[in-house]
Each structure stands twice: as C-alpha cells, then as structure tokens.
Amino acid sequence: MEAFYTEESFREAVKQVQQFGHLPATGFIDDATKKLLTAPRCGVPDILRQSPRNNSIRANPYVIGSQGWKKRTITYKIHNWPPQLGYNQVAQVLKTAFNTWSEPASPLRFEEVRNGEADIEITFASADHGDGYPFDGQGRVLAHAFFPYDFDSLGGDIHFDTDEYWIDGSRGKQNYGIDLFSAAVHEIGHSLGLGHSAVEKSVMFPYYQRHKPGFSLYYDDLLAMYELYIVRGSFEDDQYDKTSNGGSTTDTPVLPPKKDDSGNICNGYFDAVGLLKDDIVIFKGLLVWRFKDRGILRKGYPTYFNSVFQGLPSSIKRVDAVYQRTSDLHTLLFSGILKY
Length: 340
Ligand SMILES: [Ca+2]
Ligand SMILES: [Zn+2]
Ligand SMILES: [Zn+2]
Description:
There is one protein chain. By secondary structure, this protein is an alpha/beta fold. The protein is 21% helix and 17% strand. It has three domains: 2-58, Orthogonal Bundle (Muramoyl-pentapeptide Carboxypeptidase, domain 1), CATH 1.10.101; 73-231, Collagenase (Catalytic Domain) (3-Layer(aba) Sandwich); 270-334, no CATH class. The protein has helices spanning 2-20, 31-38, 87-100, 180-191, 219-231, 305-308; strands at 49-50, 57-58, 73-78, 109-112, 120-125, 143-145, 158-161, 166-167, 178-179, 272-276, 279-284, 287-291, 303-304, 321-324, 331-334. The protein has a five-stranded mixed β-sheet with strand order 4-3-5-7-6, covered by helices on one side. A four-stranded antiparallel β-sheet has the order 10-11-12-13. The chain has a two-stranded antiparallel ribbon with strand order 1-2. Its cofactor is Zn(2+).
C-alpha cells in the first residue's frame, strides 16, 4: 500500500510540474519533462489550486501569494554584488527592474537606501546562506524571494545565487550567463506578494526567460497587481507623505496634493484596470488608455471613456472597476463601488 501511495504521489507531483511547464500531464518522465526539470528557474515553489467544479488540478493564470505591502513607498537596499558586475551596474539594473513594477498600473514607488534598514534587502549568496533554502550551485535555481511580512525581517527580501554567472543583458551581446534584469523583475514580483503564474508570457512564469529591450509587464501581471493593491489594497501611509524613510519629519516638507493630475497615468494613480478583448485598459477620471499586450498605447488613446463606451449615464465621472464577462465577452463597468 505504501509503495502504491508513494508512486501515486510521485506521479501527481510530476503531473503538476508538467502542467505548470505546459507539457502533457502524463505523470511519466519523458525527455521533455527531464529538460523542464533541469531548466533554469526561480526557487519559489509553484502553487496549483484545486478547481472546485471538476476536482481537477489546474494552474491559475495568476496567483496572489500573500498580502501586499501596507505602504506605497517601498525601500530596498543592495548589500553586495557579483564580482563580474560592479555596484553601479547592479544598482542601475535593479532600479530599472523596480520601476517596471511602478508603471503604469500600480500605486507603488521604490527608493534605494544605502544606510539603515530597508523593506527589501537584496543579497547575492551561495549554497546554505542561513534562511533554510540553500542554493544549488551553478544552474537550475537562480534566485528566490520572500513575500511581504513573511518570516519577520526576511519579508520582501531577494536572494540571488552567487554561483550563477550574472550578466547585464542590456550591454553587449553575451550569449552566456543569466540576465540579472530578467531574474530581478520576476523576484520583485514575489517581494510584492505575487506567486507564480502559469501564463508563459507573464513575468511570474517560474522558468527563466531573458527579456528583450523595451520590456514591460504582461497584462496577467498587471491584473494581479490590480487585485492585490487596488481591489484589496489598504495603505497606512498617506500617498503624499514622503517622510516615512527614517528621516526627521521636520526637515521634509509634506507636499500639498496637486490640483490637476488627470491626463497623466504615469504618476501611478488611476481608477481602474481591466481587459477589453485582449487589450488592457486603464481608467483615470474621465479618460481611458488602451494598451496592446506589451504596454504599447493604441492609436487615439487616451480619450474620454464615454466616447468608447457609449450610452453611459452622464452622472458617471469615473470608473472604479472594469470586468470582461467570460460568458459573452461583454465589458462591465463599475462606478462608486470600490473605495481605496
Ligand atoms: Ca543555482
Ligand atoms: Zn518565482
Ligand atoms: Zn535565501
């Protein structure tokens, strides 16, 4: 009985790996599965959810892994860097990676600190490095990260495996090595509370893929951020209070809110994000932006949302949520429901 049980659970585990890696879920290890099992990837485990309807296991498109940060300004600190990349290069790559997560659809801002404590501590470490999740030498597991507030002070932290040959893929043509930006942008997703996505184009797909220049988040990642920080988000810091960074409150002036910042979604504050066919749409005030999947703005946008969605009551001054019904592909708009 025990042998049977063990074999069953092994087959189930193999099936899960196959499903997440988009291979036929046979439960048997063939060449493609072997290749998948040795492919470079993130060290955070994949989560598969039980589908209530038919009891079969399926991979969610995106997974919220934990609670989100309760503040809008998140600090990070770079403790060390690999020998082949100096501090300046690592700092530049990480800054770009963090900014990917603050534009265009999240209320979060990131600040590097050199002294004192930070929300996200970033270290390059080898083998056993004291957190119970040892690295495995060169290859396979490249990095891992902790969800916000998990394991006390470890919460949000990112560890990169020093035994990888880290490169800055944006400089020159290097065909070997692991691109730090690509790994970092994924790990930051965990630091913000996202789990692995089964969508291959998603940044949160667990297997390493090198990102091209001009990279932006996929809509699956944006929707996860929208759910975690807009629908569920609760912030203890005021959005205009920048004094939380350990400084004395007397020498940093608190700026008054700007009167008119509509017409620009780049400041990070918006009313709603949703899908329209395969495009992502972002609402702010009376305006709507519409992007192709990789964040390219469509022609004619931004424009007034009542010119796109005709026949809306004129009393609607903003859209709080947008949702495309899967049954008939009708787009539903909500106004005045969500408060954040
Ligand atoms: Ca490794
Ligand atoms: Zn991961
Ligand atoms: Zn670690």
